[in-house]
Write a structure and sequence with these properties.
49% of the residues lie in helices and 13% in strands. By secondary structure, it is an alpha+beta fold. It folds into three domains: 15-123, Elongation Factor Tu (Ef-tu), domain 3 (Beta Barrel); 137-437, no CATH class; 441-483, no CATH class. The chain has a seven-stranded antiparallel sheet with strand order 2-1-7-8-9-6-3, covered by helices on one side. Strands 4-5 form a two-stranded antiparallel sheet. Strand 4 and strand 5 form a beta hairpin. Helix 7 (297-303) packs antiparallel against helix 9. The longest helix has 32 residues, at 137-168. InterPro entries: DNA_circ_N. It comes from [Actinobacillus] rossii. This is Mu-like prophage DNA circulation protein. It holds the Pfam family DNA_circ_N.
Length: 483
């Protein structure tokens, strides 16, 4: 065997919270907590395992070269965070939830531009809540809201890092204007769709290669706010005095079939109120219709279904803003320019829909049917799955394009976003289960006589006015007068 034979497995670039460094040696420690039970006149002891202690990783690392000080400062900033982060182990790979508990830095006058580091990391686990009702709807609602808010923050971080990497590789002015063209067009379309204030939500007409990343981040932040406000308003449409008070309501309600509005001709003392006109499922369907319109804007621009600003219009805007030199650019919308924007729209819409589903379940937790809870949960999880597949597709594209993609910040942020997305899906599922479990068990009874729903209520309860209750519990019945 050759003395110069390399490692049989690929050694990964070590990093913590996105800051890379070179490792000289590694010392991993795994310790189990045990209780010894010893007995008189008996050799040995009974060992009772109490679980594994936090695993410990000790690294000896170095910074060297002309740029060592910037890397050194970046690592110091990462270590100042009180939250656990991802540690990329050179041998074991990604280790999430690792917290640096000890760090020692050494500089020597004889070693110029060289620093040695002794780092110790421990694995952190999520804190377990005390005195919490596991099946409580309120607890599940709080957990879901917390997961969704964290998920939307990670989505913004992912877009910011990815866009920064893309703009760093742009060299032609036509590509810069082309990318800004599609962002600007989608921004205006979504703003007009939801009737947002044009004075509060506005963008610069022109950008340069140095300002594209900053301006696009500002645009996406505004889009998330517009989506959150617009979709939430749409989900509360049944509580508005005027059902067509917003632009999105007009657009969706004009083509919507109102067959779900039940007009009762009987002489019940409690007629259907205006708040019951739009049930939970109809309100949620209106939100899904709006989401379908939003996420297809970038794709429609590429296909030519939606109108993008012409070259003359963009040139006029750039000339007025004075932020770019006017040249004879061909401002065609490329599919590659729309991929990232479509991804972030799908991710943001999935998070907002998860928040709306949580709000709807919390709002009518006492009256909502199990079938309606299942519908909200299924549709929300499908949107989250679609967003996850989109993020994974971009990850795969980066991996095939760049050899060191698994080590860059964009890939790591995508991995963090994917894990947060799965947490949101799990939180929505737990909330749905908690909402269903708080309902009393349903009893299935056989109809012994043919008649109307009012007659069935009279035979079962001795009260024909409970027919609406029976009809609500048996939503599959299409002809309540022929049972």
């Amino acid at each position: 065997m050759s003395l110069f034979q390399g490692w049989t497995m690929p050694i990964q670039q070590a990093s913590y919270n996105g800051v890379m460094f070179d490792v000289v040696s590694i010392d991993d420690q795994l310790e189990r907590a045990v209780i010894e039970h010893t007995y008189p006149f008996v050799n040995g002891a009974d060992l009772e395992s109490m679980g594994l202690n936090p695993q410990t990783v000790r690294l000896s690392a170095v910074f060297f070269g002309d740029g060592y000080f910037s890397q050194f400062k970046a690592l110091l900033k990462a270590l100042e965070s009180n939250k656990p982060a991802v540690l990329v182990h050179p041998i074991r790979g990604r280790m999430p939830q690792m917290l640096c508990v000890f760090a020692n830095f050494n500089h020597n006058a004889d070693d110029v531009n060289y620093a040695t580091l002794e780092l110790q990391f421990k694995e952190a686990s999520e804190m377990q809540p005390i005195f919490v009702f596991e099946n409580s709807v309120l607890t599940a609602v709080d957990s879901a809201f917390s997961k969704v808010n964290s998920y939307l923050d990670k989505a913004m971080d992912y877009y910011s890092v990815t866009m920064e990497a893309i703009t760093a590789g742009l060299s032609s002015g036509s590509r810069v204007i082309g990318m800004w063209q599609i962002i600007y067009s989608v921004y205006e379309s979504i703003r007009d769709l939801f009737g947002a204030d044009k004075n509060s939500y506005t963008l610069m007409s022109g950008v340069t290669a140095s300002t594209l990343s900053k301006q696009s981040n500002h645009a996406v932040e505004d889009l998330v706010l517009i989506l959150n406000n617009g979709l939430t308003e749409l989900s509360q449409i049944s509580r508005q005095s005027n059902h067509t008070s917003s632009t999105i309501s007009q657009r969706l309600l004009q083509g919507r079939d109102n067959s779900f509005i039940i007009d009762s001709d009987d002489d019940d003392e409690n007629p259907v109120s205006s708040d019951d006109v739009f049930n939970i499922r109809s309100r949620f369907d209106a939100v899904l219709d709006a989401v379908d319109i939003v996420i297809n804007y970038p794709r429609n621009l590429v296909k030519g279904v939606e109108k993008a600003p012409t070259a003359a219009q963009v040139a006029a805007r750039l000339k007025n803003s004075g932020s770019a030199t006017i040249q004879s650019y061909s401002l065609g919308v490329l599919k590659s320019d729309a991929v990232l924007l479509e991804c972030v729209l799908r991710v943001a819409c999935a998070g907002v829909v998860a928040k709306i589903a949580t709000q709807l379940i919390e709002e009518v937790a006492d009256d909502i049917l199990p079938s309606e809870v299942e519908y909200l949960c299924t549709k929300t999880r499908l949107l989250l799955l679609d967003a996850l597949n989109t993020v994974r597709a971009l990850q795969k594209q980066d991996e095939s394009t760049y050899l060191n993609a698994p080590m860059n910040n964009s890939y790591m942020n995508a991995q963090v976003l994917s894990e947060s997305l799965r947490d949101v899906a799990h939180a929505v599922t737990r909330l749905s289960i908690a909402a269903i479990n708080q309902k009393p068990p349903l009893i299935v009874r056989i109809v012994e006589k043919t008649g109307t729903m009012q007659q069935q209520a009279h035979w079962l309860y001795g009260d024909y006015t409970r027919s609406n209750e029976l009809l609500r519990l048996n939503a599959h019945i299409r002809y309540p007068n022929f049972i």
